[in-house]
Amino acid sequence: MKLFRKLYLQVFLGMFILAVCLLSFSAWEVKRQGILEAREYGTGQAERNALRFQEKNAEEKINVLGDHLRDIVILNNFQECFGSNSVLWRDGEELRNLSPYILDQELLDEMRRNARVSETEVFVSGPFAAGERRLLVFYKARAGFGEENTYGFAIFQDVTELYGRVRKLVLWGMAFAGILLFVISLLLYKKLYGLLRPLEELKSGAADIAAGEYESRILVRGRDEIGDVTKSFNQMAEQVERHMEELRKVNEKQKQLLGSLAHEMKTPLTAMIGNADLLLTVRLKEEQREQSLTYILEESKRLARLSEKMLELTGLYENGGAGAIMKCVEIGRLFGRLEGFAAFRLKEKRLSLEMKKPEAGLSALMDEDLMESLLLNLVDNACKASETGGRILVSADSQGIYVEDFGRGIPKAEIGRVTEAFYMVDRARGRSAGGSGLGLALCRQIADIHGAKLLIESREQEGTKVSFVWGEKDRLHEGG
Ligand code: ATP
Ligand code: MG
Predict the structure, then answer these.
(1) H helices of 121-224, where?
(2) Is 343 helix (H, G, I), strand (E, B) or coil?
(3) H-run or E-run covering 228
(4) Of all protein residues, whose CA lies closest to atom 22 belonging to ligand 1?
């Protein structure tokens, strides 16, 4: 059963029971009050009448009369003292019944035995339809005079009408309560439906997300707990959507990378196979053999470098920097290791690496290995772009780290594309320098992981400056 129906039924049942209890209680209370009043009035009257009767039949007046006459006087006195709803008996025998009812003897016996005045529901016959149910309340009194004669009276009141009124009242009450219950239950249904509607929406929202509709959101209604749950659900849906979007982008990037990689590998592999085939099938001159073997070696080295960078790049794409170990590292220390790493390239072209070491203590939160890789790639690019004997400047300040060369430069139209994986301005030159076009893509990814930006300024034949600019919260700080 749905929560909504369960709640509705439980509240409805509760209201129903409450209404029945209230009605029964008020009906019982009205009846009780009615009887109490009737009893109070009746008891007083019975006692007064009994006293009058006793006085009228005072011994000295009665005892002088003969038996027959005495009975006539007593009956006369009874008729005078008591009203129409009275019965007189002597020693258990009914002497006179002034009521319109023929009273059950057994009931009167019971009344005599039981001193308590009680409300009794009795069947009576008389001027009414036979078997009609009338409700009578009895009051009992006693009067004694003479030596052996004890007289008893029963006075009763017919409270059938009172009960009829109570019953009518109960029926009206029931009808009114029924209508009220119906109206309240309608309002309750509407209210509960409104309250629990967001739960239904949450359910269908969750089903939408499970079905891949990550943009699905739920309207927040009210500021209660359900509203809070709805808000949390929407936040969760936003996170899921964001993650799914990131995954989709990574997937897309990896697909592109894989396609480019296959394309990139095809040319050197074909050439290597061709050269190997040539070496195996054709008897070449020593010089040609050496040329072929050198080509194969160079291309193999390039492929090895390519696969290394590719692994590094796909790793970064996949975990989005989750594997990065962020530590506070002094920039000076990072620079110190750079010369050793780039020594080969520098020596090759007799380049001078000028490092403007930052003041001591300038440090930042970074993954040291990734930052080393970034600097190495930038210096490598600068080396490749510089003429023999040129110079390269590496510097840092509180805003970022900079690598500047005075070489070939990048055409303005290409600056925006050089950070794409496998993109090279001059493919033939890039290849011959052993490049694969992955270096700057790797640098951009490293900058992303550090919340930094990679800015490239370049002028053809004048040089290039690549700036790694820290994000607002990761600004370098002194005395780290
Ligand atoms: P890899 O870095 O994978 O060995 P690569 O250096 O060719 O190969 P990137 O570092 O991504 O690849 O650079 C992409 C291209 O951008 C280079 O091929 C080059 O044409 C151009 N480029 C990068 N840095 C410079 C620079 N400092 N001066 C001139 N051109 C540059
Ligand atoms: Mg490079």
Answers:
(1) 160-210
(2) helix
(3) helix 225-281
(4) 381
Residue 2, sorted as left (phi over 0), alpha (psi -120 to 50) or beta, turns out to be beta
Cβ burial of 219 (10 Å; 0-12, 13-18, 19+) is exposed
| 214/191 Cα distance (integer angstroms) | 30
Q: And the tokens for 133?
A: 């149910």
Distance 442 CA to ligand 2 centre (A): 9
- Torsion of the alpha carbons at 336, 340, 342 and 344, rounded to the nearest 10: 160
Does the structure show a pLDDT above 60 at 357?
Answer: yes
Ligand in nearest proximity to the CA of 462: 1
| Residue 404 phi, psi dihedral angles, 5° rounding | -125, 135
Q: Answer with the residue of higher pLDDT: 86 or 104.
A: 86
Interior angle at CA 441, CA 436 and CA 442, nearest 5: 95
Ligand 1: lining residues by beta carbon, under 6 Å: 309, 377, 381-382, 385, 405, 407-410, 418, 423-426, 430, 435-441, 464
CA angle in degrees (0–180, nearest 5) for 301-307-310: 140
Neighbours of 445 (CB within 10 A): 22
Kindly state the tokens that stand for 291: 């040329």
* pLDDT per position as a tens digit, 308-330: 888 888 888 777 777 788 899 98
| Nearest residue to 196 (alpha-carbon basis) of 216, 224, 217, 231 | 224
Nearest listed ligand to the Cα of residue 444: 1
C-alpha–C-alpha distance, residues 474 and 314, integer Å: 25
Residue 41 predicted with pLDDT over 80: no
**How is residue 232 written in tokens?**
């949390």
> Helices (H), strands (E): how many in the chain?
11, 12
DSSP 416: G
Distance (angstroms) between ligand 2 centre and the Cα of 49 equals 128
Q: What residue has token string 């909504």?
A: 4
Q: Which two tokens stand for residue 395?
A: 């510097």
pLDDT on residue 128: 45
**Ligand 1 atom closest to the CA of 440, numbered from 1:** 11
Using alpha carbons, list the distances in angstroms from residue 251 to 173, 237, 448, 466.
72, 20, 17, 28
Q: How many CA atoms lie within 13 A of 14 on its CB side?
A: 8
What type of residue sits at position 195?
A: L
Cα(386) to ligand 2 centroid in Å equals 13
Cα within 13 Å of Cα(296), Cβ side: 14
Tokens of 284: 């070449």
Q: How far is the CA of 332 from the centre of ligand 2 (A)?
A: 23
Cα 137 from Cα 158, distance rounded (Å) = 6
CB 391 within 8 A of CB 352: yes
Q: Report the amino acid identity of residue 470.
A: W
